[in-house]
Design a protein that fits this description.
The radius of gyration is 18 Å and the shape is elongated. By secondary structure, it is mainly beta. It is built from 2 helices and 9 strands. The two termini are 13 Å apart. Strands 1, 2, 3, 4 and 9 form a 5-stranded antiparallel sheet that branches. Strands 5-8-7-6 form a 4-stranded antiparallel sheet, with no helix packed on it. The model has no long low-confidence stretch (mean pLDDT 95).
Length: 153
């Protein structure tokens, strides 16, 4: 039975409330849903429960599972990636991108340096670039199907 400190391997499918899949560790599911990325390994997720490697609700969901057991849990934003925070959206003058090695485009994921998390360009105008530092899934209620495959010694 899984407890804090257990190193485990799980397969998972992450869905939005409407049933649309946004992530999975299972290659066949990714291909079936049109999410397949050939550059990504599809393999069981391994982590130590209670070390904060996963979102809170995911870690809580696996507690007390037995090998082979599968559960489906619904996680509100507070147990997933948090609520969206308008203070994490910044407007930056467009001219600051003049020497960048890329042309800013809406939807582009960028890194502004090691001190910042990845960000999404939310809007580009002639005067400014709007950058959103919220996690991509912030504000979303997420549904995970998790199957415990193994407790690693």
């Amino acid at each position: 039975m899984v407890s804090k400190g257990s190193r485990i391997k799980v397969d998972y499918i992450g869905r939005f409330e409407d049933g649309g899949i946004f992530d999975t560790s299972i290659e066949a599911v990714a291909k079936e849903e049109g999410l397949y990325d050939e550059n990504r390994p599809y393999e069981p997720l391994e982590f130590v429960v209670g070390e904060g490697q996963m979102i809170q609700g995911f870690e809580e969901a696996v507690l007390d599972l037995s090998v082979g057991e599968e559960i489906t849990v619904t996680l509100p934003p507070e147990k997933a990636y948090g609520q969206r925070n308008d203070e994490l959206v910044e407007k930056i003058p467009r001219n600051l991108f003049e020497n960048a090695e890329f042309e800013p485009e809406e939807g582009m994921c960028i890194m502004l340096g090691e001190m910042y998390p990845p960000a999404i360009i939310a809007e580009v105008t002639e005067e400014e670039v709007v950058i959103d530092f919220n996690p991509e899934l912030a504000g979303e209620t997420l549904v995970f199907t998790i199957k415990l495959l193994e407790e690693v010694e």
